[in-house]
Amino acid sequence: MTAASKIADPRRDKREADKRAKRLRRQVGQAIEDFNMIEAGDRVMVALSGGKDSYAMLDILRSLQAAAPVDFELFAVNLDQKQPGFPEHVLPDYLRKLGMPFEILEQDTYSVVTRVIPEGKTYCSLCSRLRRGALYTYAAEQGFTKIALGHHMDDMVETLFLNLFHGGRMASMPPKLKSDKGDHVVIRPLAYCRESDLAAFAQDKAFPIIPCNLCGTQDNLQRVAIKQMLQQWDRLSPGRVETIFKAMGNLAPSQLADRNLFDFASLRIDAQPETNATGGCLVGSTNS
Q: Are 229 and 161 in contact (CB under 8 A)?
């Protein structure tokens, strides 16, 4: 790279930021359409963590809402998990400035997780279950029809490999799902978005990012190892993560080994055509 190319070019940066914003809005709009994520009259609870992804999700959903052909409601919800040093004012100040309706829930899951999980073990599994339980409970109490989470394409591909390597199953985060009890529909509008785009978008927008002081302090997470593996693949073969994600929606059950998805047991050679005494085929034969 030459010295001249390193010089900041505000106009070029603005063009790139505009292209990125349009690309992300297009991808979110396409995911919503493909999976019928949001319908007329929906009350969508947007789970806002204070990280780059949930900020981006809220921003993009708001821009799409303004131009959408159907009416739907957006409501931001943050769970204050009582992590030490959590800046309680940041999200309320940001959301009030936007004029965005919101609620801050308070539940001390931090103390529970750090007390229950042995030192050296990862917190994420228990932390996410507790957080999910609090959000689901609030959504049911308030009558929200959809819960929007900020997981993106990279998260979904990482989860696929986590389940593959450590759970012995091929499963991931679907773009849309019904909860186990059947009383919540969860949507992931960022399913078609790459994390690198979202990180740059967050910088473009100068979102007031709040770092996680719980799992973010652990360097032994299996997800970190998977992320590094995928990043290396992406450097060596650009587009590989997108290809893997595409494969998640292009399954061939007969080419796998799941007996619940495909009836391997009944596979047999088709019945042989009847033959005459001399061995000639009777089917379709004509007298000469």
A: yes
**3-state class (DSSP) for residue 181:** coil
Cα–Cα distance measured from residue 237 to residue 270, given in angstroms and rounded to the nearest whole number: 43
Q: Which amino acid, one-letter code, is at 128?
A: S
- Per-residue pLDDT tens listing for the chain (288 residues): 444 555 778 889 899 999 999 999 999 999 999 999 999 999 999 999 999 999 999 999 999 999 999 999 999 999 887 777 788 899 999 999 999 999 999 877 666 666 666 665 665 665 677 778 889 999 999 999 999 999 999 999 999 999 999 999 999 999 999 987 778 899 999 999 999 999 999 999 999 999 865 554 444 478 889 999 999 999 999 999 999 999 999 999 999 999 999 999 999 998 666 655 555 554 444 444
pTM: 0.85
> C-alpha dihedral over 25, 30, 32, 33, to 10 degrees?
140
DSSP for 102-167 reads: EEEEE--HHHHHHHHSPTTS--HHHHHHHHHHHHHHHHHHHT-SEEE----HHHHHHHHHHHHHHT
Hey, what are 38's tokens? 């949001």
